């Protein structure tokens, strides 16, 4: 495991922002952090970066303690954007890259590559304040990856982006993962974590409530989703044995059921009543698991 957090706790007086967090993050993988605001995600990131010290516990990267000597190995995209508005993009990025130990020429070359990739080469000599919020976010992302970090921490990287730019950034993140970067990211959008991460941790009030491989988390959850669209009323399925939840949609219903056998019994019930347009059994979504473990959605 590349990144290890062992019994990490962060207290502010009587309040525990992070409480006894132990997780291991595999090298060259993408790891997702989920949790409502105040769950402890950003505090955890700041401790990994060495910006704040844990009250208890240890954090190591490849068995090394993280401090200023390892800062060049890490890239960080904070949730709160922190670019200098009056500086031009090139001045800004080259300055930050030099702080990470890069040569000026190498930083300029890498910047040109990323600006081309994001279809904005003309922004090189623009002031940051002249760019839209979405484009400022692209520049902030470039600042976090320009020095080719081994570990990349992304705090809400897709917030405020339109769908086209979300896909552009997702593609860039996945490309970095393929090239061997270990990536840890938090997102309010569970479908992004579900789509991109192999391992994840759901935090609630500073504690991990779910942690592990996404595949295993879904399997151990047990419940499945059953979607039924039919040309007759499906109200009779409310209260059907083995149905935990029922949601009525424009086309039909979505049921959360205890197991696959319940789906077989429901199919027997609906098959003789009329035309069934859709009958699909699906894995539980991360949203289902989050609601069950934490008690509320946070979209």
Model description:
The chain has 299 residues and is α/β, with parallel strands linked by helices. The protein folds into 2 domains: 3-218, Rossmann fold (3-Layer(aba) Sandwich), CATH 3.40.50; 223-283, Alpha-Beta Plaits. The chain is built from 9 helices and 14 strands. It has helices at residues 41-49, 89-99, 104-117, 133-145, 163-178, 190-196, 214-221, 260-271, 286-294; strands at 3-12, 15-25, 30-34, 56-61, 64-65, 74-77, 151-155, 182-186, 199-204, 207-213, 224-230, 243-248, 253-257, 276-282. The chain has a 6-stranded mixed beta sheet, sandwiched between helices. Strands 2-1-4-5 form a 4-stranded antiparallel beta sheet, with helices on one face. Strand 9 (199-204) and strand 10 (207-213) form a beta hairpin. Helix 2 (89-99) packs across helix 3 (104-117). The longest helix has 16 residues, at 163-178. It is globular, with a radius of gyration of 23 Å. The chain starts with a strand and ends in a 5-residue tail after the last helix.
Q: How many beta-strand segments?
A: 14
Class of secondary structure makeup: alpha/beta
Query: Over the alpha carbons, how many angstroms does the gyration radius reach?
Result: 23 Å
- CATH fold topology of the largest domain: Rossmann fold
CATH architecture annotation name of the largest domain: 3-Layer(aba) Sandwich
Going by CATH, what is the homologous superfamily of the largest domain? P-loop containing nucleotide triphosphate hydrolases
Number of helices: 9
Strand content is: 25-35%
Number of domains: 2
Helix content: 25-40%
N-to-C CA distance: 31 Å
> Which series of helices and strands comes N to C?
EEEHEEEHHHEHEHEEHEEEHEH
Strand arrangement in the largest pleated sheet: 6-7-8-3-9-10
């Amino acid at each position: 495991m590349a990144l290890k957090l062992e019994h990490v706790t962060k207290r502010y007086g009587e309040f525990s922002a992070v409480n006894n967090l132990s997780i291991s993050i595999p090298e060259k993988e993408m790891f997702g952090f989920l949790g409502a605001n105040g769950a402890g995600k950003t505090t955890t990131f700041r401790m990994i970066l060495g910006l704040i010290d844990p009250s208890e516990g240890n954090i190591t990267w490849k068995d090394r303690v993280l401090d200023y000597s390892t800062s060049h190995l890490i890239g960080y995209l904070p949730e709160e954007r922190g670019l200098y508005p009056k500086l031009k993009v090139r001045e800004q990025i080259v300055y930050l890259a030099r702080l990470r130990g890069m040569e000026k020429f190498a930083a300029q070359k890498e910047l040109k590559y990323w600006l081309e990739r994001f279809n904005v080469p003309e922004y090189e000599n623009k002031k940051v304040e002249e760019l839209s919020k979405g484009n400022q976010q692209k520049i902030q992302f470039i600042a976090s990856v320009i020095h080719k970090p081994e570990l990349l921490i992304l705090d809400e990287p897709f917030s405020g982006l339109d769908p086209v730019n979300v896909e552009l950034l997702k593609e860039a993140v996945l490309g970095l993962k393929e090239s061997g970067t270990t990536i840890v990211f938090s997102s309010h959008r569970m479908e992004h974590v579900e789509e991109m991460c192999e391992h994840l941790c759901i935090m609630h009030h500073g504690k991990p409530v779910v942690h592990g491989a996404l595949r295993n988390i879904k399997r151990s959850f047990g419940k499945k989703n059953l979607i039924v669209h039919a040309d007759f009323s499906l109200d009779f399925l409310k209260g059907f044995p083995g149905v935990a939840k029922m949601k009525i949609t424009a086309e039909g219903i979505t049921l959360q059921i205890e197991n696959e056998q319940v789906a077989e019994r429901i199919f027997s019930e609906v098959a003789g009543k009329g035309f069934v347009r859709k009958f699909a059994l699906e894995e539980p979504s991360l949203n289902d698991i989050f609601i069950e473990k934490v008690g509320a959605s946070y979209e």
